[in-house]
Amino acid sequence: MRSAKFHYAAIETMRSSLKSNTSALPVVDYGAGSTGRTSTVSGIARRSLKRPKHARALAALAAHLQCDTALELGTSLGLTSAYLAHHTKALTTVEGNRHIQAIAQSNWAALGIQNIRSFSGEFDEAWEEFADTEYDLIFIDGNHRGEALIRYVDKSLTVLQPHGVLVCDDIHWSPDMETAWEQLCSMPEWTLQLDAFEWGLLTRNQALKREHVSIRF
After folding, report:
1. Rounded to whole angstroms, how far apart are CA atoms 210 and 217?
2. Distance of CA 136 to the CA centre of its chain
3. Which domain holds residue 161?
């Protein structure tokens, strides 16, 4: 049973609209998962958006952490951003494709969301633009290559609050991503390591004992 606190009908109505939008968009691909030179809004909405239950779970995590600041690497069409923004004082999000970023910004405006700071560009190249803040929650949802995931996590360590949480999306996307996740879990920095299949969660919060937990969600 879903919690009404984390369900937003306006966002889900927008999801349905995006899935029927056949407008074409140029592909700007910095990672794994995209093919061809053009895509459509509907294709992105069906292929790339987090499912509602996962967006709600991220919102619930932000609420649990009482997030002042959160960082999302991989905006897509901005619906997960919208969920996070409802439970974060200030959300920073980065999208590699400026055409997709523009649609996300339009979506937030239509939803009346005003606490999102948006950047466009390849994550490594744009990093210094948003590395001016320490974040309570960092959600990595882009590139989907193991070496890139490890690199982003390594960079995230410099901007993650000591009590903060790092969520890595699609850790079972490929053998390469699974190997990267296993490598991350072996790092001594992390106390709790949670494999929720859809994503992995890491924290170095010293109030927690060191353990590895696996669940299906």
Report:
1. 22
2. 13
3. 4-214
Q: What's the number of domains the chain is made of?
A: 1
Q: Which of 98, 52, 47, 58 is nearest to 75 (CA)?
A: 98
Q: DSSP state, 6?
A: G
Residue 100 contacts by C-beta under 8 Å, 6 or more apart in sequence?
A: 25, 44, 75, 76, 77
Give pLDDT tens digits for 39-98: 899 999 998 899 999 999 999 999 999 999 999 999 999 999 999 999 999 999 999 999
Which tokens go with 110? 């239509």
Identify the pLDDT of residue 29: 60
pTM: 0.92
- Whether the Cβ atoms of residue 203 and residue 187 lie closer than 8 Å to each other: no
Which band of pLDDT confidence, cut at 50, 70 and 90, is reported for residue 35?
very low
Classify residue 149 by burial, with Cβ atoms within 10 Å: 0-12, 13-18, 19+: buried
- Look at residue 204 and give its three-state secondary structure: coil
d(CA 8, CA 15): 11
Q: Which among 129, 125, 190 is positioned nearest to 152, based on CA atoms?
A: 125
Dist CA 108 CA 79 (whole Å): 8
- CATH classification at residue 81: 3.40.50.150
CA–CA separation, 52 and 186 (whole Å): 31
Pair 115, 85: CB distance under 8 Å: yes
